[in-house]
Amino acid sequence: MDIIHLLPDSVANQIAAGEVIQRPASCLKELVENSLDAGAKRIEVILRDAGRTLLQVIDDGSGMSETDARMAFERHATSKISNASDLFNLHTMGFRGEALASIAAVAQIEMITRRESDETGTLLEISASRVTRQEPVQCATGTNFKIKNLFFNVPARRRFLKTNSTELRNLINEFYRIVLVNPDVSFLFVSDDEVLFDLPKSSLKQRIENVFSKSSRRGLASQLIDVHAETSIVTINGYIGKPEAAQKQAQEYFFVNGRYMRHPYFHKAVMTVYQDMLTHEQMPHYFIYFTISPELIDVNIHPTKTEIKFADEQMIWQILQAALKESLGKFNVTPSLMFDREGDIDIPSSVNAQNIKVDVPQVTINTQYNPFTEHRQRSESVAGWENLYDRRVTNEKIKEEKAYADMLFGGNESTAPLLNTANVSSTPCQYKERYIVLPMAEGMLFIDQHRAHASLLYAQIREQMQSGKCVMQQVLFPEVLDLSTDDAVLLLQMTDELHNAGFEITQIARNSFSVDAVPAELNNGNPLVVLLDILHAVTETGVSGVEAWNHRIALSVSEAAAIPAGKVLGENEMRDLVERISAAETVYTPDGKRIYALLPDEAIVKLFGK
Ligand code: ADP
Ligand code: MG
User: Fold this and answer.
1) Is residue 278 very low, low, confident or very high in pLDDT (cuts 50, 70, 90)?
2) pTM above 0.70, yes or no
3) C-alpha to C-alpha distance for 58 and 46, rounded to whole angstroms
4) pLDDT, tens digit, 9 for 90 and up, residues 65-84
5) 142 lines ligand 1 (CB under 6 A)
6) Could you tell me if the CB of 62 is within 6 A of ligand 1?
7) What's the CA-to-centroid distance between 215 and ligand 2, angstroms?
């Protein structure tokens, strides 16, 4: 007997939905993108229970004919491409014809749609891929989608959804990514009868201002500098923050051809331009929009992925950097000398990109060179630290630093030497008020004073949190923390963990909180900065769960409380740090940064030759 058969469409669609529609936010993205593709000028989003009960999107776009309304829900039904070559010339957000079929498979849908040229519109009801009702209706031009009871027939998925506040935060983030690149469309966003955003059609700069007007970033637009570059391969427009507006938590957005994207490599390009102007903890705001011929980017964009591949990323890196430097230079915020010294290319807007010399510095790593081979055995315990804190090195800059140090010192994560200062009698001193330097038999030891102290504090705070022994310190004049809506939602979720770490926070208005007590370690630090740091880091890394939050809280508190770079240390303070870090048996901070490095004796001798 043959055993292979084709799956019924409803089952195939449900499987596809598992990929495309993971949560209410993905549903919102698909619907709003369809509205934009339909040329809508006004889009309203209405939510109930963070999209769980109802997710409604109303647009004034082209609408659909009676037949198309039916067709739209078929798998691979799309009006946007007809053959494979169209894939290389995409100008719409959607093209796979998968979204509606997927949503229909896992929800109950009511759709009303009418084209301007039609007298009557169409009402369609679908439940789990089956049309349950279809009839003509009187309605406005455009399309009105109601997605009800998302995942009602996939209990596993429904259970997998996070709390309403998490899902709402995801929805808001998705909404930001759309409205920040469509300023000529007006948007309304209502959640449980409360208007969270009412954004009229406006200039891009005004849109940025409107989006963040209710948050602590009010006035953001006045802190932005224009960026513009036009070359034959790419056009770059947008805004970057003045260095003085940099924050620990910045708004960072890249868009390409009207689509939000994440791009760690270009992010690094931005950071490099600012690196001499900001401390390593400050991040600049940026809203950067690339326009590029569709054939120069990877079209087969997975609906849930936001990374986009460009044909020539190094070239674009150069153009981007030149544009940013020009903008910062024009606004006289950086001394022009800086550019001369670096001998950077300056791209006048008319220059053909072909002529630009690409000169990306490369770090070569000599993997053979390892003066620490004799330490290998001992260093195996380093791995334990990693498991202990589940650190994730995401920051490109850290990786680069590490590669550089590893190249110099011949170590790498698994072979880095552990420190044994037990028999060292020499006196430590400070280099650049940032590193503690100690001559040892094996070479010259450098310890980053801030990182060393922060790591020790981290371990201590984690221990106290574990045993519920964090010391709380009341503040005399409680400060008020004004948050954006998404940050406020997150803060409320993390209240227990924050309290356990020593923060006492009271909600005084929807997005405002008073900070009444702080962990004792923070006696001089600004608690608002620390809290914002925690929220931002959690949002950025997308981590959730008690363990991840505790890690983040301890990390931010310890960083804020640790001895800063730039502080002059007494001999005893230095000795104490050296001893404790040596006992801690770890080379890296809980977030993966190198704490110390040994400039080996061999290297020093080599410097002088025979
Ligand atoms: P895709 O967007 O990839 O084409 P979808 O499943 O999202 O696939 O949508 C299928 C089709 O339904 C679209 O190609 C479009 O023709 C039509 N459609 C969907 N939403 C709308 C809308 N809001 N207004 C007009 N047409 C729409
Ligand atoms: Mg679509």
Assistant:
1) confident
2) no
3) 8
4) 999 999 999 888 788 777 77
5) no
6) yes
7) 31
